Structure formats: C-alpha cells, structure tokens
C-alpha cells in the first residue's frame, strides 16, 4: 500500500481490471475527485464504466483481477482489510446504480431499506434510524411517510430518489452514480440530476457520475472523461469536451447527441459505424483505429497515451497535441492560477476550482508521482513510451481534426444500443456489507 496522500478524496492510479477469460475491461485508468467536485465518465456500452465503478468499492465478481491503486482519502481500497472495507462502503463512499427496481429489495418497505445501513454503520437506535430515514426522504423530495411504501408502490423516479436517499444515509464523502437516470423519462431525469447536483454542492461530497450520455454529463459535471475500450481517451472541463472534443471518439460521441437549438443536428444526429472492440481481443495499436475516419497507418501499430492538448485537457490521439510548451508555460511562467498542468496528472486533477491544493498530484512533491512526463494515467504502451515532445505521427498537431466520419444515419449511434443486461447491480443490497 502506498503512503497516504490526503490531497484528493479519490485518487485512482493506473487501475486495471481483467475479468476471467482475459476480458481486459479497464486498462490503466487514473482519475482524481475532490470534495464538492463532479467528474463525469462517458462512453459506449461495454467500454468499462461500470467495471470501474464496481472496482471503486471492490464490488467486482470473484475472479476479476485488479491492479493499481484506489486511494479513498489516502487509503487504498484494494488492500483494505474486509472489516475496514465494510466501514468504508456506505460511509466513505456509496453507489447509486442504474435501475432502482433491481437494486431495491421488493419485499421490504423502502424505509427499512434506507434505515438498514444507518443501523449497521451508525449504531443509531431504531427510533433514531427511523427519524433519519424520514429526513433523508424529505431531502430527496419525497414525503417522509413514503418510508412505509414497497418499491412497487413507487414510480421509477421515486425509486431512484430512494436509492439516492440510501446512498446518502451514512453521509458518504464520495458518491458513485452509475447511469442513475438512464431508465427515467427526461422530466424525471432532469429532476434527479438537479437533486444530485444540489446534494453534491450542499454536502461537499465528491461525485463520480457515469453515463453514456455526454450531454447529460456536460450539464452535470465539472470535468469529463471519455472512455473507450477500457481507457480514458479524452478528458477535460466538461463543457469543452462536449462541445469541442479533441479525440475522434469524443467527437463522434458528442455528435451522436442532438443539440437543443441546432435543428440540423436534431434531424441528422451522427452515429459511429462499427462496434466497440471485444475487450478479450483488442486490436493492435490504437484500439479506436478500426472505427476512426482520421486514422493514420501508424495508428494500426502505435498505441496512444493521453497527452496535453491544452493546459487542462488531454487526449490520446496521434492528432491531438502535444501542446506547444511555450503556450503551456507562457512566457511569464506557469499557465493559469493552478500552476502548470502536467501530462502526468490523472483525470480530474487540473480543475481550476480544485480546492485540494496543487493541481498536479504527480508533481515533484508527490513521492508516488513518476518523474517521467508520461503519466500514471498513461497506460503502458506496447508500442513503447510515447514522448509528449515528439508527436507519434506526421499529423500537424495544430490541425483541427476532421469529423470522424460522414454522417451515417444507418450506423448505430454510440449510445443507442440497449442497456447492457449485466448492468443490473450485483448482489449489492442494503443489507450487504
Ligand atoms: P459499461 O458499463 O461501460 O457498459 P462494463 O464495465 O459493464 O461496461 O463492461 C466492460 C466489458 O467487460 C464488457 O466487454 C463486458 O462484456 C465485460 N464484462 C463486464 N462484466 C463482466 C463479467 N462479470 N465477466 C466477464 N466480462 C465482463
Ligand atoms: Mg455500465
């Protein structure tokens, strides 16, 4: 276990998850989340988002191999003793899953389900837990009296509110929300998102919000990471990533969503042809190259690592950056109030409003940070270390990237696929550890 680093609420370092059978679902993800900050994770179904979420609280099925570090308030979740892990679940971090109907126990009243972790973790009296349950329900916009309802007596939106109340029950420092609104209609979706945002800012918790919907994440989150084939391929301030993606995959994902006010995009949202790769048989080189309209020959053999494209943005594409070092540092020194952004920083590390101190966790003061400008975020590249000072291809880094593909109305939109049936939560019931 590494020495505790108190600077980030959540600090995921070079996380790898491989399921039995060699399914490399997460391949070297690093990200940080600070209190009161919201980090979004986007990507097509199957890119490893839920695997990442489950790994954060060690909820992966037996047989999954996990490598890397998951520091929650400086303590590595992956090496925690079981008793400590039980204490951390709910109280340190909690998860809101997609599809509340599957996550709630159908034969228990929702109040009892919210009270259960309170009783387990807080050692409150039964009366105290009941009182707190009522308060929690009211905080998520439900009358306290709904505590006596069974899940089937509530609407989908009300059930999801119950899930959020449950996630808040033990005052967690971090909330991980995996597609919390995917099954809900747009009105309820907006209400739930507003609620989540409000709770995050009022209670100063950190939020990891997972969705296939880039538009929702750009509205809700401060920073946004786009995953493809188990890796973060692009990250930066949420709006910028949504509106001006640097990675062809980020561009395609963003173009797949019609924009309010943009009639053309409404009638012809662009899709991305092809399917995400099978994580058990990933293509050589950049995993996105078979679907990429701007791939170079070299992309079929050279893997790409995240590199700076702007002081607080990174993308893993041969066409993206590296940034001009002069523009990065500025003639008068480091760019921006947060100091020089480093390619070594993980996702979420360079938010301008980062209250947790230095923006660059891998800076010289961090004993765990590599001196190499390649990052802990940078997955190990089979093609050898990418040197941010030497573009891996002939492309002009200043050239704006072409849209990844001509509009293909017949092609599947990245997010249009049916929900992954495995996304129903694991046996994670309120009574669980
Ligand atoms: P997402 O949430 O982005 O849709 P997942 O994390 O659920 O993606 O899945 C990532 C990859 O891991 C997929 O290819 C999926 O098939 C595979 N996978 C997920 N869970 C398991 C499991 N329990 N066993 C084997 N493979 C799995
Ligand atoms: Mg998922």
Secondary structure layout plus pairing:
Elements: E1 10-19, E2 23-33, E3 38-42, H1 49-56, E4 65-72, E5 75-76, H2 82-91, E6 93-96, H3 100-103, H4 110-122, H5 126-139, H6 156-168, E7 174-178, H7 186-203, E8 206-211, H8 214-220, E9 223-228, E10 231-237, H9 238-243, H10 248-255, H11 263-267, E11 307-310, E12 313-315, H12 325-329
Parallel strand pairs: 3-8, 3-9, 6-7, 7-8
Antiparallel strand pairs: 1-2, 1-4, 4-5, 9-10, 10-12, 11-12
The structure holds adenosine-5'-diphosphate (ADP) and magnesium ion.
Residues 49-50, 178, 420, 423 line the site of magnesium ion.
State the main characteristics:
four-stranded antiparallel sheet, eight-stranded mixed sheet, 12 helices, binds adenosine-5'-diphosphate, binds magnesium ion, alpha/beta, single chain, 433 residues
Question: Could you describe the 3D structure shown?
Answer:
With 433 residues, the chain is α/β, with parallel strands linked by helices. The protein is built from twelve helices and twelve strands. A hairpin with a 2-residue loop joins β9 and β10 (231-237). It has helices spanning 49-56, 82-91, 100-103, 110-122, 126-139, 156-168, 186-203, 214-220, 238-243, 248-255, 263-267, 325-329, and strands spanning 10-19, 23-33, 38-42, 65-72, 75-76, 93-96, 174-178, 206-211, 223-228, 231-237, 307-310, 313-315. α4 (110-122) crosses α5. The protein is globular and about 65 Å long. The protein has a domain at 107-163. The chain binds adenosine-5'-diphosphate and magnesium ion.
